[in-house]
């Protein structure tokens, strides 16, 4: 029987193991931490009974993942829950742009920009599943839906700062800018409109749901499916050297390229090793979890009905803060994401004490303390916020790496999305999952299609491994 060892029990490692196990491979997962999940875990960070997401929180790409749907994670206990409003973006004039799952409702709230919003996102949302089939895999493949991809491509290749000019109101530009900022790089660079288009469209297709009980419920369901398929999971087993990996026909690495180099660099072909050495990190986050009494006192009550709140001011401010961050300077007002997962999932609260998840985009490897900057951004749109905070838990950039060795320099996306690396990660190749070492594959979010709790990096890498065994045509 073919044997596989999966190094890393994050969503992609588990997905790779699950797909291999469902295809008759004997799978063993080794996880360094005492619990599985990687970026999809939950914990009582502040007070007993108050559940915080460790990293990932909202899952528009997760609920729409073709692999999760194929596995039917709901049958393993996962339950998706939706907030009333997916995302709010307040401005200093007390107005707020709102992203609803319904594109019509979103457009209606944007006034003069309503028609423009539908023109930018309408066909992408309608065609999302077909586009995802082509885009959520290595880009160097023959597309299955070339016409739809051809319509999407010209917009996706634009800098976000250029596409934002389509919108004439401050609200329309800010709402798009906050979504586009998820690409985590300068918004005046080519291709930075792409992720904003996909995340916005996926929200209109599937919404921005949370997992009941915390994001750890997603990996718990994947793990249950893996064990049912015959796989095994061992926690508390760090892999620091080659000899820590048992002999197997297939080795799947849910690791950063730097970690792969430390294990297999001496065996990798020179051109592949050099590509891994050139791979750039750059998407650092500084996170603060709050326990608050009664909720955040937003100036606009609509923000209190939104699962996610983007705090960054108008588009010009977001563009400038991302430029500063990307060039190594800490903005006075960083872009901050606030999560109110308890609105959709009250099981995360303890009475009237609710968990608030917040992180700021900060320069790569930032060594400072962004706690006050995050609080100031929330206070800017919710005066009195400090008065309702009853407990905090801070995860610095260094703390991100301590919690997850894949987060090199606090990079939660597994690599910079600047330049061609947006499309070609970790290297330019028809099959970027192959490391050049026979039987060894990279399956982390440093491979296509990149970050997100969709499992598709692992699934695609497992497909590559199966092809290598001659199991697939």
UniProtKB/TrEMBL annotation:
SUPFAM superfamilies, alphabetized: FAD/NAD(P)-binding domain (SSF51905)
UniProt xrefs under Pfam families: NAD_binding_8
Protein name listed in UniProt: Dehydrogenase
């Amino acid at each position: 029987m073919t044997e596989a060892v999966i190094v890393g029990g994050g969503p992609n490692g588990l997905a790779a193991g699950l797909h291999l196990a469902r295809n008759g491979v004997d799978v063993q997962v080794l996880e360094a931490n005492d619990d599985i999940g990687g970026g999809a875990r939950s914990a009582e960070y502040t007070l007993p009974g108050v559940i915080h997401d460790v990293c990932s929180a909202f899952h528009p790409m997760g609920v729409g993942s073709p692999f999760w749907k194929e596995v039917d994670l709901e049958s393993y206990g996962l339950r998706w829950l939706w907030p009333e409003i997916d995302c709010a973006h307040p401005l200093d004039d007390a107005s707020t742009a709102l992203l609803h799952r319904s594109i019509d409702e979103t457009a209606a709230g944007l006034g003069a920009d309503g028609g423009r919003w539908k023109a930018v996102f309408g066909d992408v949302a309608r065609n999302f599943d077909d586009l995802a089939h082509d885009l959520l895999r290595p880009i160097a493949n023959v597309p299955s839906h070339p016409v739809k991809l051809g319509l999407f491509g010209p917009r996706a290749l634009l800098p976000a700062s250029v596409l934002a000019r389509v919108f004439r109101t401050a609200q329309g530009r800010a709402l798009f800018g906050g979504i586009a900022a998820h690409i985590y790089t300068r918004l005046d660079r080519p291709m930075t409109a792409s992720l904003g288009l996909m995340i916005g469209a996926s929200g209109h297709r599937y919404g921005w749901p949370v997992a009941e009980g915390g994001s750890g419920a997603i990996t718990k369901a994947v793990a249950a499916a893996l064990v049912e398929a015959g796989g095994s999971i061992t926690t508390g087993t760090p892999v620091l050297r080659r000899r820590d990996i048992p002999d197997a026909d297939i080795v799947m690495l849910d690791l950063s390229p730097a970690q792969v180099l430390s294990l297999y660099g001496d065996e990798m072909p020179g051109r592949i090793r050099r590509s891994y050495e050139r791979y750039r990190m750059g998407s650092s986050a500084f996170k603060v979890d709050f326990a608050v009494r009664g909720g955040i006192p937003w100036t606009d009550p609509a923000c209190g009905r939104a699962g996610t709140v983007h705090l960054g001011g108008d588009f010009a401010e977001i563009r400038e803060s991302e430029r500063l961050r990307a060039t190594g300077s800490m903005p006075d007002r960083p872009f901050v994401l606030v999560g109110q997962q308890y609105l959709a999932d009250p099981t995360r609260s303890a009475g009237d004490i609710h968990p608030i998840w917040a992180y700021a985009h900060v320069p790569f490897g930032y060594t400072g303390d962004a706690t006050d900057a995050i609080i100031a951004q929330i206070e800017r749109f919710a005066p009195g916020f400090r008065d309702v905070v009853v407990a905090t838990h801070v995860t610095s950039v260094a703390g991100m790496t301590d919690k997850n060795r894949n987060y090199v320099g606090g990079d939660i996306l597994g690599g910079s999305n600047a330049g061609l690396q947006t499309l070609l990660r970790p290297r330019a190749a028809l099959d970027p999952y192959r490391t050049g070492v026979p039987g060894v594959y990279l399956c982390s979010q440093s491979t296509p299609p990149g970050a997100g709790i969709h499992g598709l990096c692992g699934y695609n890498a497992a497909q590559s491994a199966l092809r290598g065994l001659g199991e697939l045509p």
